[in-house]
Write the structure tokens for this entry.
Amino acid sequence: MPDINGNAKATKKKQIDLIDSRIIRMLQVDGRLSNTEIGKHLDLSEATVRSRIKRLIDEDFVQIVAVSNPFKLGFEIAGDLYIHVEMKKIDAVLEALKEFKELWYIILTTGNTHINAEFVAKSLEELHDLVYNQISKIDGVIKIEISVIMKYVKRKYDYGTALDEEPFYAVKNHLKEI
């Protein structure tokens, strides 16, 4: 199974336990929580929390980053590119797309298109250059459809884990008590 960055890994499937799940959920609610605060809530030592978070990061279960709103950071345009490609060239196209700083999320998908890539651009001119002068010239790209984001209605990353044993709002309410 590929890691967060799409790199193939030839290892057995790693799993998380209930403690890992709780740590992840807490960080999804507030990524700035300290190891001490998490430990206090889960009755774990700071060192245990630190080592678990390190393992979760090292094994690509999570990334801890600042999620930003591109429109507030000077990007005038953000959206999705739906890229149709020749199937026999799909791996090469994916590798080429990974080099574009404007593409922050690239996935191989099912359906009418083969690749979905989310982009940010400072202007229509920059988007035009990206699509028509760069991506469309990648060997194997057949067609590109563009969908521009008009407004973010919901943009959350606090979906929990498959091991969740309590509703999300319960975790959020517990964190208010710390």
Notes: The longest helix spans residues 46-58. The longest strand covers residues 77-85. Strands lie at 77-85, 103-108, 115-121, 141-148.
